[in-house]
Design a protein that fits this description.
With 113 residues, the chain is mainly beta. It has a domain of 77 residues. It is 4% helix and 64% strand. A 6-stranded antiparallel barrel has the order 1-2-3-6-5-4. β5 and β6 form a beta hairpin. It is globular. InterPro entries: Phage_SPP1_head-tail_adaptor, SSP1_head-tail_sf. This is Phage head closure protein.
């Protein structure tokens, strides 16, 4: 893949659990790695969740292959941060199983990953 379409710098984040000052567990996100990506919007919809209308947009995010993408379960547990926009990863596929590019299906808007 040529470098031209990969012009957005994204940060992959992993979910961690920490303990706050009251002894309660809280979810935190730590940066795992950064990558250049292409982000393509696919669809958008509005849903009724918790008695409120919320919008959700699905995206295809394309990045170069890395060793971290060998375990799709670990990738699905991550999220992507792009300039404060948070993308919840639903799946990642190794395009043609050639270890060159990975297409990530992600959604934005419903939660924080």
């Amino acid at each position: 893949m040529q470098a031209g379409p990969l012009r957005k710098r994204v940060v992959f984040q992993c979910r961690d659990t920490a303990v706050d000052s009251y002894g309660q567990q809280v979810t935190t996100w730590t940066d795992a790695f950064t990558a250049w990506a292409a982000i393509e919007a696919l669809s958008a919809r509005e849903v009724l969740a918790a008695q409120a209308v919320q919008s959700e947009a699905s995206h295809r995010i394309t990045v170069r292959y890395r060793g971290e993408f060998t375990n799709p379960v670990a990738v699905a547990a991550m999220r992507i941060n792009y300039n404060g926009r948070l993308f919840n990863i639903s799946g990642a596929t190794n395009t043609d199983e050639r270890n060159r590019t990975v297409e990530i299906m992600a959604s934005e808007g419903m939660n924080n990953g």
